[in-house]
Amino acid sequence: MERNSNIPIRNIYYMLSYAYQTLNLSEYKHIGTERFENVKDLYAEILSIGIPVLIRGGLIKEYVCVEESSTVIKGKIDINSSVKKNALVDKKLVVIYDEFSEDILLNQIIKATLVFLSHSAKIIQKTRRLFYGFLPYFAEVSDIEMNRQLWKNVQYNRQNIRYQFIIDVCRYLFEELLLEENSTYLFTKQVQDEQRLSALYEKFIYSFFKRETDYLVSRPQIHWNVDDGFIEALPIMQTDIVLQKGNKTLIVDTKFYSENMVTRFEGGASKQKSNNLYQIFTYVNNWNKKSTEIVGGMLLYARTTTLNQPHHTYNIKGNKISVLSLDLNQDFNGIKADLFAYAIQFFK
Predict the structure, then answer these.
(1) Which of 18, 101, 118, 271 has its CA 20 to 30 A from that of 81?
(2) Same domain for 177 and 322?
């Protein structure tokens, strides 16, 4: 990936600000005025502020299942385990009960991140000491090994949603440091960067239109327009962003790739990526529109350094389909102006 991996740190901060409303809290205000040499420093600074905010609010607790040998009867008695573990020899029984505890995955991830960062030579000493000083607050939380699979088991609900931003930044920073430490991971790092920034890019575009415009902004699933009602094995059509105003609806699909157009051979003409074009066209044609509704589609790529970038508008079967690119390396005011202009092209 050429240009996308070099998005200015300030613009990554702005993207985070839109994607996560948490960054608008007063505790984070000074970050927006600081200059960071690299994205690792930005992530570390966010954690140095955000983790104390979580601590002050109280670490979240959940009921966890505990199994232990005890002389006190509580919960359920597991006779089979009591026999297998010879607990009866010590006049104990294996009991199973639920305990309201801080020792849950979200807190375990934060603790493991603090341990990892406090020993990382990639983090300045002052920040390492700060992270080490947070560890006593996680004394009741188990130690776990850091790996990229941890985040796949994270689930959010109304009670723990305040953790989402910090947990995501923990992942961003861990992957940034882990993949940088081993040269064999260089290709993997490129893929991870693209995936990570792709998710952030989608969140940013959605939140930008939600906050900065008066469009009705949503991301619904689109149902297949089948004749007989049979939809078994058909893939889910999950939109990234849908903008609506008056009788017009614009379905936006964000794309973050190292290459935005394809050529069949060196020196050949650049073409749109067919799968992406088929996707947005399918979304538009399956949208359950009202009789007077006008529906269009937009593929919004993050611009790369390649000479040929998508900037085209097609009228296909009565539907307007735009394929555009957004330059994330320009000043943020330019990014805002482009996003406003791209939407107005359809809604004017």
Answers:
(1) 101
(2) no
- pLDDT, one tens digit per residue, over 102-151 is 999 999 999 999 999 999 988 899 999 999 999 999 999 999 988 878 88
Quick count: other Cβ atoms within 10 Å of Cβ 201?
A: 24
Read off the pTM: 0.79
For residue range 184-218, what is the model confidence (pLDDT) as tens digits?
444 445 555 567 788 889 999 999 999 999 999 99
pLDDT score recorded for residue 4: 47
- Regarding whether 187 and 54 lie in a shared domain, the answer is yes
Residues with Cβ within 8 Å of residue 342, at least 6 apart in sequence: 298, 300, 322, 324, 326
Question: 87 and 171 in one domain?
Answer: no
* Residue range(s) defining the domain that contains residue 275: 204-347
Reduced to 3 states (helix: H, G, I; strand: E, B; else coil), residue 5 is helix
- Integer Cα distance of 322 and 93 in angstroms: 68
Q: What angle do helix axes 39-57 and 164-181 make, rounded to 10 degrees? A: 140
Question: Are the C-beta atoms of 94 and 82 separated by less than 8 Å?
Answer: yes
C-alpha closest to that of 174 among 138, 144, 142: 144
- For the cut 60, the answer to whether the pLDDT of residue 88 exceeds it is no
Q: Same domain for 150 and 118?
A: yes
Same-domain pairing of 152 and 138: yes
Co-location of 51 and 131 in the same domain = yes
Residues 300 and 327 in one domain: yes
- Provide the terminal-to-terminal Cα distance of the chain, rounded to the nearest Å: 35
